[in-house]
Write a structure and sequence with these properties.
Blueprint: H1 2-5, H2 9-12, H3 21-32, H4 36-49, H5 58-74, H6 81-91, H7 97-105, H8 112-145, H9 163-166, H10 189-207, E1 218-221, E2 228-229, E3 235-240, E4 247-249, E5 255-257, E6 260-267, E7 273-281, E8 288-291, H11 292-297, E9 301-305, E10 308-313, E11 316-324, E12 327-330, H12 334-359, H13 362-368, H14 374-382, H15 398-404, E13 422-428, E14 441-447, E15 453-458, H16 464-479, E16 485-487, H17 507-525, H18 534-545, H19 557-562, E17 577-580, E18 595-601, E19 609-612, E20 620-623, E21 626-628
Parallel strand pairs: 1-8, 2-7, 13-16
Antiparallel strand pairs: 1-12, 3-6, 4-5, 6-7, 9-10, 10-11, 11-12, 13-14, 14-15, 17-18, 17-21, 18-19, 19-20
Helix pairs in contact: 4-5, 15-17, 17-18
Length: 649
């Protein structure tokens, strides 16, 4: 009876009349107990829609949302810490926009305690800056009072989406745009009209890109969300992007690919510098644009009126501008503006042209292929082995005169009709300078039908028989044919003994030895390498001669020997500088990834390149990871000391 009397008569009438106290209390509990599903739905809606009002304190706001998540966990609706952090970040107002961008760009995820600490720090920072913000807002409100054009001064507020700012004190909807009661900003007809006018204005800016705008000018755009430029000068840091990795959509629906992004510095007429962070480099853009919202996020204040505008920070004017054709043009430093103009002219006219001209330079390919003749280059172009070359720069090569000046060669009379029918061989040496591995002589074996050549380095002439047996086994197994005749200067076909100093009387092998050494001398003269690397140059020349045309055969020796056309795309100028990446399992984090070295040839039994590294532990290394600087060797006019490489009799 006591329990019944303590309950209000209205509620008491809805409860069954039970004599047992326990049963009566159970009936009361059932009347006021809601379902867990409805309670969880209410908590989720409240968690998603909660917004920070900026009054209660950021710590209390986060703890309140954390309590909601804890209650949901008790209802078997657990929310992970990652989702809860994102809900909290979403609930923060627009004044925390830079703080949220900073969080989104970081790879690490914040724990709840870290989030509370960082948000409290941000709130304290904003409180310290609040007096300056209030002063700037007061200054802006005074200017709006003097503005007779009411529509032009209407700008939507960024906090209009919060529940506290969408309703007035009476609970009725309140529009922050037209400041009228009865509807929200998203339903405001004046706001929709303002958006339509703003869209047309953007389209007009996009259309003006087609006009002839000087490339050394910068323009202020209050509607652009990013800084945009059409040149790369002035970038303090820059990151190149792949095509269509990032695009910018214009107001007319056209999308442009961003070539690079970085931090750019502008020197204003006030002699002060403004750094534009996250500036997009898009070559197709005609105007260089400074984003108003980006400047505002970086702490700058922009004011305009009477055809002028100023960019300031902490009461100091950083830059000014003038109204020109409906847009504000920044006033840059005169010397800086002139440097931009000259840079764009040079960049557009010479940068890509120089690279294209080098790739079609006949002199560059002449040096890459070991100083072969112009006729051989022409045949390679005709056979489509090389691209179309520009022979206007193919003048007299001084290095070729130094290495090839001699009398005309004697033509061969007898020719074979198949591979390995006749093999020409000859030993050249010893030479006064030993190679890097100690060899002073070399022996060549040349197939008469294809002119394909094998070259072996030897230390003594008595190694010639063993070398020939190795050659014989290799080529007979490779071609499944037998060597029929071997010709040398003292056997086989009863060739007469030649007089010293007259290699033109000794047939194919003698003339080939002369060609080899002529090209070796030319390549040594064109490089800055020591003479003991002549054996590496010799092997490179043999590699090249097997892949370029000869006067005696209709095709390249490599094609007649293997049945496939050779590829010359990988050829580089012998002796050129290169940056090579070598395999090093003990490489430390701050160690340089490449070693400066010199290109000296191609490996015999693998793909890649051989390099001479004077400062490396291993002086001769092989790798296929390298960047070559062979275009610096195209001049053909540098003078190097003559080589002391001579054959001793």
């Amino acid at each position: 009876m006591f329990i019944k009397n303590s309950i209000s008569p209205i509620i008491r009438g809805a409860i069954p009349d039970l004599a047992n106290a326990k049963a009566y209390l159970t009936a009361v509990e059932e009347q006021f107990k809601g379902t867990s599903k409805a309670h969880a739905s209410t908590l989720i809606m409240k968690l998603v829609s909660t917004k920070y009002d900026g009054v209660s304190g950021i710590r209390e706001h986060i703890m309140m949302m954390n309590d909601m998540a804890r209650k949901l966990k008790g209802l078997d609706m657990e929310i992970s810490d990652g989702f809860l952090v994102h809900f909290i970040m979403t609930s923060l107002p627009a004044s925390y926009e830079a703080f949220k961008i900073n969080y989104n760009t970081q790879k690490e995820k914040w724990l709840m305690n870290e989030l509370i600490a960082m948000c409290v720090q941000e709130e304290e920072r904003q409180k310290l800056e609040k007096p300056d913000v209030a002063y700037l807002m007061a200054t802006g409100s005074k200017k709006r009072k003097n503005n007779t054009n009411r529509e032009a001064s209407k700008v939507p507020k960024s906090n209009a989406g919060t529940s506290s700012s969408s309703n007035n004190s009476n609970g009725k909807p309140y529009c922050k745009f037209c400041r009228k009661v009865g509807h929200k900003q998203k339903d405001c007809p004046d706001f929709k009209e303002w958006l339509a006018k703003r869209g047309n204005h953007l389209n007009m800016i996009i259309e003006s890109f087609n006009l002839n705008v000087p490339t050394n000018t910068w323009w202020f755009d209050s509607g652009s969300m990013v800084h945009v430029t059409n040149y790369t000068q002035g970038f303090l840091t820059i990151q190149r992007l792949e095509r269509n990795q990032r695009t910018l959509k214009l107001g007319d629906g056209k999308e442009l690919s961003v070539a690079a992004v970085g931090t750019l510095e502008l020197i204003m007429k006030t002699s002060l510098c403004i750094k534009l962070y996250d500036t997009l480099y898009i070559p197709e853009i005609s105007r260089n644009l400074v984003s108003g919202p980006k400047l505002d996020m970086d702490g700058f204040y922009v004011s305009h009126g009477n055809g002028r505008f100023t960019i300031s920070s902490n009461s100091q004017v950083f830059g000014t501008g003038l109204l020109d054709g409906g847009l504000y043009k920044l006033e840059l430093d005169d010397d800086f503006s002139k440097s931009l103009l000259s840079y764009n002219i040079n960049e557009n006219s010479t940068k890509t042209k120089r690279k294209r001209d080098l790739e079609t330079s006949s002199m560059l390919w002449h040096q890459r292929l070991g100083h072969i003749s112009r006729d051989r280059l022409s045949r390679l172009v005709k056979d489509e082995v090389l691209p179309s070359l520009d022979f206007t720069d193919f003048g007299t090569c001084v290095k070729c005169l130094k290495g090839k000046m001699t009398t005309a060669a004697k033509k061969c009379v007898t020719r074979s009709s198949n591979l390995l029918e006749i093999i020409h061989t000859d030993i050249s040496g010893p030479y006064t300078i030993a190679g890097i591995t100690g060899q002073t002589s070399f022996i060549t074996f040349i197939d008469d039908y294809s002119r394909y050549m094998y070259l072996y380095l030897i230390k003594d002439k008595y190694e010639s028989l063993k070398t020939f047996k190795d050659y014989e086994t290799k080529v007979e197994n490779q071609l499944d044919l037998k060597i029929k005749v071997v010709r040398s200067d003292r056997g086989g076909d009863r060739e007469p003994v030649h007089r010293p100093g007259t290699p033109q009387q000794n047939g194919v092998a003698e003339r080939r030895n002369r060609t080899l050494m002529n090209m070796v001398r030319s390549m040594l003269a064109n490089s800055d390498l020591p003479s003991f690397l002549w054996t590496e140059a010799l092997k490179t020349v043999a590699h090249i001669l097997n892949r370029v045309p000869s006067k005696s055969v209709p095709k390249t020796p490599y094609e007649l020997w293997t049945g496939r056309k050779p590829s010359l795309r990988y050829m580089k100028v012998w002796g050129c500088l290169a940056e090579a990446k070598l395999y090093n399992p003990f490489l430390k984090k701050l160690d340089m990834k490449t070693v400066t070295c010199y290109f000296i040839g191609y490996p015999d039994h693998s793909k890649g390149y051989r390099f001479h590294c004077p400062t490396h532990v291993t002086r001769i290394v092989e790798t296929n990871h390298a960047h070559f600087l062979d275009d610096s060797k195209v001049s053909g006019s540098s003078e190097n000391p003559d080589s002391d490489l001579q054959e001793t009799l």
